[in-house]
Specification:
single chain, 313 residues, alpha+beta, 2 domains, 4-stranded antiparallel β-sheet, 8 strands
C-alpha cells in the first residue's frame, strides 16, 4: 500500500453519529443550565435517534445547531422539545430542526419568574363549553369524559395563564378550523408532529398566541421565534435571536423600566411620610424633585456581540 504523495490533501473520515455527539458535548456544556448535565442531554439525543433513525442521516451541522438550541434554552429532548428530520429538496440533504412543544414553552414562561402557570386545553364537541370577552371575561369548560375524544371530534383549543400575583390572562379560544389554518401554513403540515401529535401542536398554537399578552423572558421569546422560523423552513440558532442588537436593546430597556418602576414604588411611601411633594408638582425649592426620571438606555451604547472564532455555529 503506497502512502499519499507529499502535499496531497487527505480527505477526513466523516464523524459517526456518536462521535459527533462527543465532539459537541463540551460545546453544549458551556451553555446548558445547571439542572441539565451534558451527559443527560447526549443520552436524550441518543434515545431520540433510536426512536427516529432518520436523525442519523441529518446534515451534521444542523444536528449540532438543534442540540445547541435545546441546550441554551434548557429544553430536554423528548420531554420539552423534539428533534425532527426534514428533507431539504433544494440542497438534497436532510436537516435536523428543533421543535419546542407546548410543555417546553410553558416551562420557559414559568422559569421567567413572572408566570405562575399556563394551562392549555382541547375542547371536544360533547363538552360543556362557554366563554365571554369584554369587561368581565371568563372561560367555562366542563369536559365529558365518556364522549368522543378523537381528533375528528375536536371543537376548539384554548389556554389560560396565571401571573405570579394570581391575575388570569387568556386570549380568545381558537376553533379547530383556525388551528388547521395555522397548520396549512407550516412546511410540516403533512409530516412530523402535526401528523403524529396533532393535539399537542394545537395546544402549542394557543400558548404561542396567548404569549403576546404575557411578560416574556429572552428565552421564552426566543423559543417562540425559533419555532416560527422552523415552521417556515428557516434554520436559526438561539444566539441569532437572543444576542441580536434589537433583542439586547429591548432587554436593557425592559430591565431599566422595571427598576424605575420599583424605585417609584419605594419612593412614594417615603414622600408621603415626610410630607415632601411629588416630583414635577411645581413646588418651589424642590428643583431636584422636578427633574424627570429618564431611561439611561436611550443614551447608552448598544451592546456588541463578542466574536468567537472557534464557534462552529
Amino acid at each position: 500500500m503506497t502512502s499519499p504523495a507529499k502535499g496531497t490533501a487527505v480527505a477526513k473520515k466523516p464523524m459517526s453519529f456518536d462521535e459527533l455527539l462527543e465532539w459537541a458535548k463540551p460545546k453544549i456544556a458551556a451553555v446548558l443550565p445547571k439542572h441539565i448535565t451534558p451527559e443527560r442531554m447526549v443520552a436524550l439525543v441518543t434515545l431520540a435517534a433510536m426512536k427516529t433513525p432518520r436523525l442519523k442521516e441529518c446534515q451534521p451541522l444542523s444536528l449540532v445547531n438543534a442540540l445547541f438550541n435545546a441546550s441554551r434554552l434548557g429544553l430536554e429532548i423528548g420531554q420539552h422539545a423534539h428533534l425532527v428530520p426534514f428533507r431539504n429538496n433544494k440542497l438534497g440533504i436532510t436537516e435536523c430542526v428543533l421543535i419546542p412543544d407546548y410543555r417546553g414553552l410553558i416551562g420557559l414562561a414559568v422559569r421567567s419568574g413572572k408566570v405562575k402557570h399556563i394551562d392549555a386545553r382541547v375542547v371536544y364537541k360533547d363538552d360543556e363549553f362557554d366563554y365571554q370577552l369584554g369587561s368581565a371575561p371568563f372561560i367555562k369548560h366542563k369536559p365529558k369524559l365518556d364522549g368522543d375524544r378523537s381528533d375528528g371530534n375536536i371543537f376548539a383549543f384554548y389556554s389560560v395563564a396565571h401571573l405570579v400575583d394570581g391575575t388570569p390572562v387568556f386570549d380568545e379560544p381558537m376553533s379547530k378550523a383556525e388551528v388547521d389554518a395555522v397548520r396549512a401554513r407550516s412546511r410540516a403540515k403533512d409530516d412530523g408532529p402535526w401528523v403524529t401529535d396533532y393535539v399537542a401542536m394545537g395546544k402549542k398554537t394557543v400558548v404561542k398566541r396567548a404569549a403576546k399578552f404575557l411578560p416574556q423572558s429572552p428565552e421564552f421569546a426566543a423559543a417562540i421565534e425559533l419555532d416560527n422560523r422552523a415552521e417556515t423552513g428557516e434554520i436559526s440558532t438561539v444566539s441569532d435571536i437572543i444576542d441580536s442588537r434589537d433583542s439586547l436593546n429591548a432587554q436593557v430597556a425592559q430591565s431599566t423600566q422595571e427598576k424605575l418602576n420599583d424605585l417609584k414604588d419605594r419612593m412614594e411611601p417615603a414622600a408621603e411620610s415626610t410630607g415632601k411633594t411629588e416630583p414635577g408638582d411645581g413646588a418651589p425649592g424642590n428643583e431636584e424633585a422636578r427633574t424627570p426620571l429618564t431611561s439611561p438606555s436611550a443614551a447608552a451604547p448598544a451592546p456588541t456581540k463578542k466574536n468567537d472564532d472557534d464557534a462552529p455555529f
